[in-house]
């Protein structure tokens, strides 16, 4: 349609895109990420059907008359599995939601905020877009706001989502750290949500093992949340990992956005592992989303007396998850036979690694310090304590115990592991 009519424009003809085309599309998608809430399938269908820029011009030209809003648009949502009448009603309600946010909309300003943060915007039309997000269909994100220099698509090509409760036990925290550190050594990226508890242990473990880790946030990437993990999230972005969000800078995390964010974690991984979860943990919703996407799901068993593992036991009892007890089984879940030639090698290497754990028997704090020690270059006590989530005094004591055990050694003015 034209910008002044009520008929939707026709679908775009595939063609090679110029840099100016990509810039226009990126700005339009940035605008859509502000206009709609995450996972809005009507917006996703509209943008997929006519293109982000054309859909934005069409929305800006709409009047409040229902006939103008829905005329000729019902066909765009046919693949949502509803008839024309239902599609028309859904679009009418959607436009009523979107239009109030048009006032003051300025995607260039938001992109400039991103640039000042050292971040960037990626879109489905670009080369960095994660291929697995295609499985989300019309609920796929409009774009991703990115902190971190690693290329998003390649970083997520071999990825495992590790999730669990915020209120975790020492057992769950240690398993999450060991799995994530080992996965990095096997060439996998870990994916989680940047929260307290299991999420933080996952990111710390990957950083300690020099493996990439990706944190999906429910708010803007300029508002690192929770605030207590801000240093950890900055370390993720600065240490070869990525901090990603589908909502623009300045967006506040909310309960609904947390729930919608979970679909990105589930979609990004080749498999999802629930490390520790209570009966009603939000990580069970992530597992359910992964199953909906036909991703394999694993669950780590815990003590039968531990309510912190009741959700994992529930997944196993209901047959919705595979029992995962070591790194080899995580690798097997993420690299099924026939997917590529690396699965058997990953499993064999993981089995060998799981047979030799020099840090077995350490107390909880010392184990965290061990996981935070770099393998290649020494780090100072302040950096080690920050990565481990312990106080400087605990970091110093932990390093001392590790040195006595032969597990840590001085490297210049810092410390590193002697056994990886």
TrEMBL record:
Residues 338-359 are annotated as: Disordered. GO terms for biological process: DNA-mediated transformation. Residues 121-333 form the Smf/DprA SLOG domain. Belongs to the DprA/Smf family. This is DNA protecting protein DprA. Residues 345-359 have a biased composition (Basic and acidic residues).
